[in-house]
Amino acid sequence: MTQLTGQPILVLPEGAQRLLGRDAQRSNIAVAKAIANAIRSTLGPKGMDKMLVDDLGDVVITNDGAAILNEMSVEHPAGKMMVEVARTQDEEVGDGTTTAVVIAGELLKNAEDLLEKKIHPSIVIRGYDMAAAKCLEALEEKAEKVEFSDDKLLRQMAFVAMTGKGSGRAGGHFSEIAVKAVKQVADHADGKVSIDSDYIKLEKKQGGDLVDTSLISGVVIDKERVHPGMPKLTKNARIALLDSALEVKSTETDSAIQITSPDQLQAFLAQEENMLKEMVNEVVNSGANVFFCQKGIDDMAQHFLAKAGVVAVRRVKKSDMEKLARATGANVVTNIHDLSKDDLGKAGVVEERKIAGEDMIFVEECKDPKAVTILVRGGTEHVVDEAERALVDAIGVVSSALEDEKYVIGGGCIEVELALDLQDYAKTVGGREQLAISAFANALEVIPRTLAESAGMDSIDTLVELRAKHEKGKRDLGVDVMAAKTAGMSGLHVFEPAKIKKQAITSASEVAEMILRIDDIIASSGSGKAAPEMPPGGMGGMGGMPGMM
């Protein structure tokens, strides 16, 4: 509201609240730091787990950054921007979500110190932008090449991604499965590798042990045969896929059939039966002995299919139909009358098996399948869920390494290297931007510092030692969390895809710069009603995590 010649002029609706300048910046930075601190302790192989309980009492126990932030009900707009960082990181590379959010929080914390020294936000933003560009340039130089055939290196990266995520003694088994699955679905074109991880299906079933988790060279469908008279096991399967219903369709226009005698009714039913029989004959005549339908199959058609010895499954999800087509080489047909021998796919075995008390259809022994399934087993629901998250991370890491063809040394090693490069670069930059570049360098060191804290080490002593030895040329020295000491990471095979670090630094710097640009927050109900009361430090709060407002 402003005043001209004593007359009040309403600019915002009554009850709207506003934070300006430094108050707005403090509010946003405080929320971003709170989110970063909430998941910081989950970083690394000795990271702690979080238990998240929703309104219905459902429990999620995990130390996966993306899963934690997805489960938390974050209300503050700046908080939502931090959650978006984790989501982007997860979608782009599948791992490094905690790293990205923690670095973003540290960038904002260091920026706050510069703002307190009366350095203008635009100077900090420019310095951060220069530092991020320098980091990406340095990463390209320091990264080493990954060969598609180097299974050992890929398994080591997958193992590092899963350490501390509850996979435990199954880590080696999981990493082998992840590498095989990714390489199986990989497409090669123009000397480049492209991987669509959607074609790696993760099917969870409670029961058994983590080491019972297996890779199926084909697709597992969580359905059962439509008729008990159909064979449970079919070898040398010839598979037909239909995305429309195997039923007699009703007419598109409203119509009525007048039947005046029992003979006419009998003829009508016989005609309907003949139509269904013809449809089934189309399937049988094509040579198919296994039939997957995306929609319904009429009861009479089920009977005819069972008599012909054809295994049929109905109401299969569209995504599963696409995977079946990729795995078996079949074509998805829309009109049953168009089905021919050339549209059929092949699989060595199609079998209905009972897993954890539920019937499932296994389509396996496919020749060079471009879609595979990982059947995840574990003792309890929480164990299975966490195992699935570990495998998702491992698949993301292997995919990123193969697509980008570059890897770096982990354990906080690459962050120390980049921080030292930035400190040298800052000295060559004139003006106040060098302070922001130096602050960016210090922010990167939050990763080795956090790893040291999680191992029970003194974080300051560890960081001083790492800096000193890296300056003397010991460039692979990092934090050996398991042994609680500094050690050569190359000898411990702690490697990570360069793409994960690139994405984390890019996302963290972009969100930090965006939050620093905000100098005005207007909270309005939009309907003329009073806006909700702002708590100390800004708009809204952050539900789902006690004590975080």
Secondary structure elements and pairings:
Blueprint (H helix, E strand, L loop, with lengths): L1 E3 L2 E3 L7 E4 H20 L9 E4 L5 E4 L2 H7 L5 H17 L3 H20 L4 H22 L1 E2 L5 H12 L8 H15 L1 E3 L2 E3 L5 E7 L7 E3 L2 E3 L11 E10 L19 H24 L4 E4 L5 H9 L3 E3 L4 H11 L3 E2 L11 E11 L2 E7 L7 E7 L2 H24 L1 E4 L3 H16 L4 H12 L1 H9 L4 H13 L5 E4 L4 E4 L6 E3 H20 L2 E4 L26
Parallel strand pairs: 9-18, 12-13, 12-15, 13-14
Antiparallel strand pairs: 1-2, 3-23, 4-5, 6-19, 7-8, 10-18, 11-17, 12-16, 16-17, 19-22, 20-21
Briefly summarize what is shown.
With 549 residues, the protein is of the alpha+beta class.
Describe this structure in words.
46% of the residues lie in helices and 19% in strands. The chain has 549 residues and is α+β, with helices and mostly antiparallel strands. It has 3 domains: 18-145 and 409-523, GROEL, domain 1; 147-215 and 370-404, 2-Layer Sandwich (GROEL, domain 2); 218-251 and 273-368, GroEL. The strands form 8 sheets. Strands 11, 12, 13, 14, 15, 16 and 17 form a 7-stranded mixed sheet that branches. Strands 6-19-22 form a 3-stranded antiparallel sheet. Strand 13, helix 9 (299-307) and strand 14 form a beta-alpha-beta unit. Helix 1 (21-40) packs across helix 3 (77-93). The longest helix has 24 residues, at 262-285. It is elongated, with a radius of gyration of 30 Å. Residues 527-549 have low confidence and may be disordered.
